[in-house]
Amino acid sequence: MTSNRFLRAARRTFTAGAAALLIGAATVPSLVTPAAAADGPASVADLAQGLLGAVVNISTSQRVKGTEGPGAVPMPQLPEGSPFQDFFDDFFKNRPGEQGNPSQKVQSLGSGFVVDAEQGIVVTNNHVIADADDIEVNFSDGVTLKATLVGTDTKTDVAVLKVDPKGHKLTAVKFGDSSKMRVGDWVMAIGNPFGLGGTVTVGIVSARNRDINSGPYDDFIQTDAAINRGNSGGPLFNSDGEVIGINTAIISPSGGSIGIGFSIPSQLALGVVDQLRQFGETRRGWLGVRIQPVTDDIAESLGMATAKGALVAGVIKGGPVDNGTILAGDVIIKFDGRDVNEMRDLPRVVAESTVGKAVDVVIVRKGVEQTVKVTLGRLEDGEKLASGENGTAGKDNGDEAPAVSTASVLGMTVGELNDETRTKFGIAAEVSGVVITEVTKDSAAAERGIQAGEVITEIAQESVATPKDVMDRIAALKEQGRKNALLMLASKTGELRFVTIRMD
Length: 504
Prior knowledge:
Layout (H helix, E strand, L loop, with lengths): L3 H12 L18 H6 L5 H7 L3 E11 L19 H9 L9 E14 L4 E4 L1 H4 L4 E5 L5 E10 L4 E6 L22 E6 L7 E12 L9 E4 L11 E3 L5 E8 L10 E5 H14 L5 E2 L2 E5 L2 H6 L8 E7 L14 E5 L2 E2 L5 H7 L6 E8 L2 E8 L1 E2 H10 L2 E2 L14 E3 L2 E5 L2 H7 L8 E6 L4 H4 L7 E5 L2 E2 L3 H13 L4 E7 L5 E7 L2
Antiparallel strand pairs: 1-2, 1-4, 2-3, 3-6, 4-5, 5-6, 7-8, 7-10, 8-9, 9-12, 10-11, 11-12, 13-20, 14-15, 15-16, 15-21, 16-17, 16-18, 18-19, 22-23, 23-24, 24-25, 25-26, 25-27, 27-28
Subcellular location: Periplasm
Keywords: Hydrolase, Periplasm, Protease, Repeat, Serine protease, Signal, Stress response
Enzyme class: hydrolase
């Protein structure tokens, strides 16, 4: 039921404008006592009445080019006076691409809400207005205003629109603190499912911190409030009438509500909205590292008591920490005072930080916890750099050791990385270490997905340059009573990753 197939299907539905809004039931202030909460809210009528005017219907239209060229289906040649002439005239001559009809206007619907009545600022989902040629905002009192696009963010699926409020008094709502919401709290949804404006549904927060693989900063609120097509971009309210989420996705095999919907938390959305209003674009913090999860095996190899944090697998050349401040093999456990319990926590907290800010980062390096100071760069500036550069280990490669014979260890045959092996496996010149020339089938190395042509650059966070270095490091680890060996591997192009291999 919770497969990515359903999530993708829901996302495709939303992109077409048939988006779903998640907003659960909100209790009125007089029903917040524990005794009343146990029975659920008696009515949310007063709360809903004050919020309906701020929730809007987003109507978009897009001109789609007509079907032309080899793929076009020609109109059949019918005998004069054929009874099917009118039918085929209607079908073919009204298609996009036919003479007199070069394009077709496709319309879609979604939801949104006003956050600034004086400036006419409306928030919605990016997928609701993506690729639209015209955007209209329809208010609950029947007024329709043309909207201009202020800015969008595809990573969080947030868009900000602006309408001219002159001559029309708008009602606005404010953002609340989503971090205070608990599983079981009542929430309320107002949106436009299937174009039916002003629809109110209630429910609870079913779960928090959901990762549905829709973007790099997934941290969704899950709710069972009924949401359907046309609701995307609408607000999720708490019992005080504050927006604590923007509804954006559902899990559904049929496109209808089954009580599993997801909302972007206000804690994440608010910063994006502010940046879009101020700059027309996002300006996120950037650390300049490639990371991977800390597994139990990796934690044991690093001498950590528990598996937590984000393991630095590489440092982006030219990035903020390409000065040796943070090295490949470090584990980041705290960033600017915020704990990093899982790998996915780090990108979010870094992105929410101010560009140019100097922050304290707590790392574990070779089993020792220490704090380093880092000045953040800008993610948007670094993305192009990161896509064109390989991660660097930030280590001392030293002089190349004399040639030695190959060695066999942990199901791998390793050899010297020289001109011959570089050419054989297509290994880039900047990659250094010991090349893996063969991996034994069903071995410990094969089970970890290690392949011939990869290069061992470090073992247990110490550089290796020769096959003898590899043998010596493995032997030393066994003498220390270690069960796993932590290898840093470089791909043929130099991209780094960490792998643990059992040595028993």
